Amino acid sequence: MSTDIITEQSIRSREVSGGKKKILIFSMGYYPHHIGGAEVAIKEITDRLSPEEYEFHLVCNRYDLTLPKVEQVGNVLVHRIGLATVSPTMADLRKMPLHLNKLLYQFRAFKKAKKLHKKYSYDGIWAMMAHSCGVPAGKFKAAFPEVAYVLTLQEGDPPEHIEKKMRMFGKAFDHAFTTADTIQVISNFLGNWAKQKGFTGEPVLIPNAVNTSHFAQSYTQAELAAAKDELGKKEGDVFLVTTSRLVYKNGIDDVVRALSQLPKNVHFVVYGTGPDEGMLQELIQELSLEDRVHMLGHVDHKDMPKYLKACDIFIRPSRSEGMGNSFVEAMAAELPVIATQEGGIADFLFDQKRNPNKVATGWAVSANHPDDIVVAVQDIIDHPDRAHAVVAHAKEMVLQKYDWDIIAEDMQQKVFDPLWS
User: Quick one: average pLDDT of 234-242?
Assistant: First the structure.
């Protein structure tokens, strides 16, 4: 008997306990590969909810032929569909044939969900992001109106950009919003979008979180010195750092432009990959910053806190942002944070001058304004005591509001439990 069959039978055998709710999650991808903030949120939340109360299944693209079609991952039984090749990279997902999965998922996920529902009789469905999963979820809700439907908005791209991409699906995309029983959003910005798209209820604001203990962990002086040596950091250097997809919305080009106006001891470390890498390399060469901008590609999540702490200032001047976990992670790691207040960032990054009625948690700059970045960096360098106070306030806020234990409890009490109360 195959492992997949054993896994499904073990799940079904637990149904005799009665009372637990079965929820099918729609997500474009899932563990162990090709994951982002949305997939992390699913796993962190489902891992913390009792399997005696909730049973989670998930339909996602397979992508990788080495992965089984059905697999238990934490508290989620994963059902994989779609086109797949052997051990594809993230870049391969943006190429043919795997790029077709984004389109095909809108149809295949609904078909798979209907088949699974016949077998498992789900009590609810949970769509992770409207532009990825709202169409199949809305279709499922129309076919099975008695099944509760939760939509989570985690989008980072501008709503107008998303709506343009989804125009081909017509009213089916609108129905992702209007047929939802509950819409959970990670920022007030996305809550407003839900209302603009026709949701008549009140969106439930529950932000994403970070593994605060992981990013707040301490390292020995020797460990940090080794990390600084690895980065080529010398005494007196100031290292800006970002962890970002290299895409236009994240504004990495503005940091490069600002760097040319900052003292030569200021460097910029970039962790991440993406389609803008070539453009950024050309810009770096054009401004003769090859010795001061360090494009270091992907960094493993387990090592990220160490490399953050080896640097001095976190920066990402986003042109749009649903929320932005990276900012919160940097705050937990006790770095000063420079960011715009676009989208969901405005919910947690408060600037002394722009938000005089709030306790400052960072330095706000305007999108597309490298000069603002120069001023913010220089302010942090010139006023270390004030910077230290802002960093302390930011970390305190993160520990109080952005821990996964808190978020998971809120998801149960404010989103899932009310559906059947």
Answer: 98
